[in-house]
Amino acid sequence: MLLLTTRAKAEYRVFLLKISQLEVGNAMGEETTSRLVTSTLDPLQYRGYYTLKENEVISYVDTWMCKGRTNSLPLCENPRSKSIEQP
User: Fold this and answer.
1) 11-24 pLDDT, tens per residue?
2) Theoretical Cys-Cys bridge with 76: which of 12, 30, 45, 66, CB 3.0 to 4.6 Å?
3) Per the domain annotation, does 1 fall within a domain?
């Protein structure tokens, strides 16, 4: 009997998200403040998991793949981080 073993390889996707607070009562909805968030949740998942204010919108800025398991370790850095400002 021949047994073959394979090594499982884990990887995960990281998203750089921009959460912008829009000016209340402004018809144009101009942005007043914003913050960058790094997460393993995409914009739709993030909004479903975390509560955002009514005047906050979330947008996708960048994404990249990380090798290995998360295991509550810090997320890997963006390989293009020199060209994108991160918090």
Assistant:
1) 899 999 999 998 87
2) 66
3) no
